[in-house]
Design goal:
Order of helices and strands: EHHEEEEEHEHEHEEEHEHHEHEH
Number of helices: 10
Distance between the termini: 10 Å
Length: 319
């Protein structure tokens, strides 16, 4: 039987900051995200999607099999499902089976946290405006709270959804439980935010990008499809844009591909990558002269890096 790590077990093994350190370590060791294989996506009858995400380093290999089932929340089930199989690199012997949804819930905020170490405004408590109230929103709130002092958190619900409004208030209450002033609010309040994080399933822009202040940072993690986006063309045109990988972004990041299709930007509009930030190749990153946008689509190398860190942290605790 393959040893397993449940979501509950994983939660106590690695903080978002430690996961971000693991990601940085892999990049500093020489991994090039541009060479990583693209994810495979298979439409499933009924409106779902099956994703396959393999990756390998010298010591380890792994693959995440993830399901995206938009109808699940109405059934009381998670929208994201899946498992992660971690393998020994040289022998390809299975080492552990991890909860794939829990891995994603940790990995994505860790990627954002790593980018924010280089992009978020420095020297003052941050006003955070958060779109979304699902697991990723909670994960991002916890990750940002662990790394920076927050002056206020404003949670924005989807317009016209009573369930979304209730979820937004619940997340605001969670923030208050962390000792941070928090409330629900409106999308137009992005104008006063230092940091805007988008963790939604929206396929259309969530706010008017003209309102974002110069020097504010926007993180968009909600989509990996070329025709879906959370931020608008106005913001992309104004912003210094950072991505995990140019190749991945130009395949999957609708936030960038839609403006490119409109003729508003070109592929060269991307300012840099996560690797560039970690390696110190972007000395101007985080400048206050324009908004900073980090667009994440999620990549297999990130899953592998965090899975390895979890596996090694568990040690003999893997059962």
């Amino acid at each position: 039987m393959i040893p397993q790590l449940s979501g509950a077990e994983m939660a106590g093994l690695l903080t978002p900051a430690a996961a971000a350190d693991a990601l940085a370590g892999v990049l500093l060791a020489g991994l090039d995200p541009e060479t990583c294989p693209p994810r495979s996506a298979l439409p499933v009858p009924g409106g779902g999607e099956l994703l396959l995400m393999p990756a390998a380093t010298g010591a380890y290999a792994g693959v995440k099999i993830a399901g995206v089932a938009p109808g699940n929340p109405a059934l009381g089930l998670p929208r994201i499902t899946g498992s992660y199989l971690l393998l020994d690199g040289p022998t390809l012997r299975p080492l552990a089976l991890l909860d794939g949804a829990a891995l994603t819930t940790l990995r994505t905020p860790a990627v954002s946290a790593l980018a924010l170490r280089h992009l978020a405004p420095a020297g003052r408590p941050l006003r955070l405006l958060l779109f979304g109230s699902g697991p990723q929103a909670y994960g991002h709130l916890d990750a940002v709270h662990a790394m920076r002092q927050l002056a206020e958190v404003v949670v924005v619900a989807r317009a016209g959804s009573a369930g979304s409004a209730a979820g937004a208030e619940k997340l605001a209450a969670h923030a208050r439980g962390l000792g941070v002033p928090a409330r629900t609010g409106a999308a137009a309040e992005v104008a006063d935010a230092d940091l805007v994080i988008c963790c939604t399933t929206s396929r259309e822009p969530l706010f008017d990008g003209r309102l974002i202040a110069p020097g504010a940072t926007v993180v968009a993690v909600g989509s990996h499809e070329p025709d879906a986006r959370e931020v608008d063309t106005a913001l992309v045109r104004r912003a210094a844009v950072y991505v995990e990988s140019r190749a991945a972004a130009l395949r999957e990041a609708g936030d960038l591909l839609v403006p490119e299709a409109e003729g508003a930007i070109g592929a060269g509009h991307i300012s840099g990558t996560l690797s560039d930030l970690v390696a110190g190749r972007m000395p101007g990153a985080g400048a206050a002269s324009c908004p900073q946008l980090f667009k994440s689509v999620g990549m297999a190398w990130e899953d592998l890096a965090v899975a390895v860190a979890l596996f090694e942290a568990a040690g003999s605790g893997v059962h």
